[in-house]
Amino acid sequence: MSLSFNQSVIEEFRSHAGKVGGPFAGGDLLLLTTTGARTGRPHTTPLGYVADGDRLLVVGSNLGAPSHPAWYRNLLVRPVVDVEVGTEKYEAIAVPAEGARRDALFELIVRVAPGYGDYQAATERVLPVVALERSEAPAGEGPAEVNTLADKILEVHTWLRHQLREVRAEADAHFAASAAHRASGQPGGPPAPGLGLQIRQRCLAFCQALEFHHTGEDGHVFPVMAGYHPHLADVFERLREEHLAIGAVQSELAALLDGVGATVPERFRTELARMSQQLNAHFAYEEEQLLPVLADVPWPPAKGPDTAP
Ligand SMILES: [Fe+2]
Ligand SMILES: [Fe+2]
Asked: Which ligand is nearest to the CA of 245?
């Protein structure tokens, strides 16, 4: 798609509650915004999709061209994306499917939208199938409403705790499947293909969000709050040190991620356990010390550059 054609589709989509005419009339269309792998800039592209329960499936068809589309390369580097569908906009984690699971989802897609079969026939490349999963903590966890900076921080902590639990559950499942396969003596790779990339995407989303959160606290929230509450100087000092220690575990995890494809090394699970222990202790201390103080700070801020979490 040419850039200007893309842009006109995006504009029509946004001004007509997600409906677009011309070649897209009658089809299900969403807007996917990824972050440029190299530029760091947002990149919006209109895509057809097929719903699979709560998840939306998109295909990196690139109209059957030999290379993957830019949005697919972007989401492998930064898995947190924005999805616009109808009049709704939400954050999602992009999880490409692998192996037999990818093939089953692709079959489902082709039954609904046969054109993707033609694109697949036109290229040697296996067209990627990506599930866009709403990125939110389960209902009932975290604050019911966000009106103060305390609510906001609690909301972010809840999301991070949830993501970390998910990554650990997937890593455990993957490890158990690999172990069962080894014990069975069957040749070939372990079953349950797809967990590798799934773990990688979730873990990457978790690490990137955690880094963003701690950078915001160190750079904005803590210095501003320390000005108002000088008696908490020791608390901020301890929290900052904990950020450094957690950052070190995060780097370990990031370094191990590239090896997740075939098997999940025991070391990865050890680091996840370490992360979980340190992060939960950190959040508990931070919430105990700071939430009472931050409950007076309205969120979102009326005007003021200095309080992003
Ligand atoms: Fe925090
Ligand atoms: Fe923190």
From this structure: 2
How many angstroms separate the alpha carbon of residue 227 from the centre of ligand 2?
18
Q: Which ligand is nearest to the CA of 209?
A: 1
Ligand 1: centre distance to CA 157 (Å): 6
Cβ count within 10 A of residue 22: 9
Q: What is the CATH number of domain 149-294?
A: 1.20.120
Measured in Å, residue 35 CA sits from the centre of ligand 2 at 25
User: CB within 5 A of ion ligand 2: which residues?
Assistant: 217, 286
Ligand 1 centre distance from Cα of residue 290 (Å): 9
What mean pLDDT is predicted for residues 131-157? Answer: 91
User: What topology does CATH give the domain 3-134?
Assistant: Pnp Oxidase; Chain A (2.30.110)
Number of other residues whose CB lies within 10 A of the CB of residue 92: 23
Q: What's the predicted TM-score (pTM) here?
A: 0.88
Strand order in the sheet with 80-85: 42-48, 29-35, 80-85, 88-96, 129-134, 55-59, 50-52
Q: Give tens-digit pLDDT for 147-188.
A: 999 999 999 999 999 999 999 998 888 878 777 877 877 766
